[in-house]
Specification:
Layout (H helix, E strand, L loop, with lengths): L10 H39 L7 H16 L3 H12 L6 H15 L2 H14 L4 H13 L3 H13 L5 H15 L10 H13 L24 H8 L13 E7 L5 E2 L15 E7 L2
Antiparallel strand pairs: 1-2, 1-3
Helix pairs in contact: 1-3, 2-3, 2-4, 3-4, 4-5, 4-6, 5-6, 6-7, 7-8, 8-9
The chain binds zinc ion.
Protein name: Periplasmic protein
InterPro entries: TPR-like_helical_dom_sf
Keywords: Membrane, Transmembrane, Transmembrane helix
Length: 283
């Protein structure tokens, strides 16, 4: 019988147990995924089914709140399902729905669809600042400098301050060509971007650019930047480093929302150059 049943001491027995466990875990994960997906689908279906046929204005505003709550919870797929369904009906909040749809598409990374939705929104509301700024954000993400310039021109015509946008475009042009002579802005944001470029390219001579690095010390708190400061600028990094354990976050001056990853464009309100670094105490 020994040749039929494996002993638990047999290495082959361990291998069989190991692969069996992996198989069971995979099947469980897959099954849970299906159950969870079906559950979400049923919730959305129930929400849409319970909607009255004679949709009044109050109900339509409630729809927007429901979609917004999903967006705030970062449940973008649910927001998209509901919004697409409502857009297929004669919904009076058409423009608002397009606005929520493009935000949800950005949330799931479908930038092509987000761009098309913004453009559709702008066809019926060409001066909508949210749609324009969102479209700019998409072009920035796609590194489409020409389209960024077009949007910046429109925003300027609408009397908005576009200096930060133009500084960012200038920075991207320098990055894409590695031609630092293109640097043409002198606001504090553009100096920070230039400093970022100098650090990234390990360019040591920064004196001619008239940058007060103490205003941008947060750049040196990032990984790999410390040595640049110590070695090339002869400044003691410790003077700028807070004496507590911290996590870095970015807070937008315009909308007051937190951005968890470093970005010069707020991923909540899409404003350029409005995020400031903040520290979160580590306990
Ligand atoms: Zn913001």
């Amino acid at each position: 019988m020994d040749f039929v049943f494996l002993s638990y001491k047999d290495p082959l027995f361990s291998l069989i147990v190991f692969f069996s466990l992996i198989f069971i875990l995979s099947v469980s994960n897959y099954s849970w995924g299906i159950i969870s997906k079906n559950k979400n689908f049923l919730l959305i279906k129930k929400f849409l089914k319970n909607k009255p046929n004679n949709i009044n204005n109050e109900n339509q505003k409630e729809d927007l709140l429901v979609i917004e709550s999903y967006i705030n919870k970062m449940e973008f797929h649910k927001a998209i399902s509901i919004t697409l369904n409502l857009l297929s009906k004669n919904h009076e909040q058409y423009k608002e729905l397009l606005n929520l749809l493009s935000t949800s598409y950005i949330g799931v990374g479908l930038l092509g669809k987000a761009r098309a939705t913004c453009i559709e929104h702008l066809k019926i509301d060409p001066k909508n600042i949210y749609a324009l700024e969102k479209l700019l954000y998409i072009y920035i993400t796609q590194n489409d400098i020409k389209s960024m310039k077009d949007i910046s021109g429109v925003l300027k015509e609408l009397k908005l301050d576009t200096s930060h946008i133009n500084s960012y475009i200038n920075y991207l042009e320098i990055c894409s060509t590695n031609d630092i002579t293109l640097y043409s802005h002198q606001n504090e944001f553009s100096k920070k971007l230039l400093l970022q470029y100098l650090i990234s390219n390990n360019i040591r001579d920064i004196s001619k650019y008239n940058i007060d690095i103490t205003k941008h010390f947060d750049l040196f708190l990032e990984k790999n930047n410390e040595s640049y400061l110590n070695e090339h600028l002869k400044i003691k990094f410790q003077e700028y480093k807070p004496n507590f354990e911290y996590n870095l976050m970015y807070k937008c001056k315009k909308c007051n929302e937190l951005n968890w990853i470093k970005s010069y464009i707020c991923n909540k309100c899409y404003n350029v150059g409005s995020t400031n670094i903040i520290f979160e105490y580590r306990t």
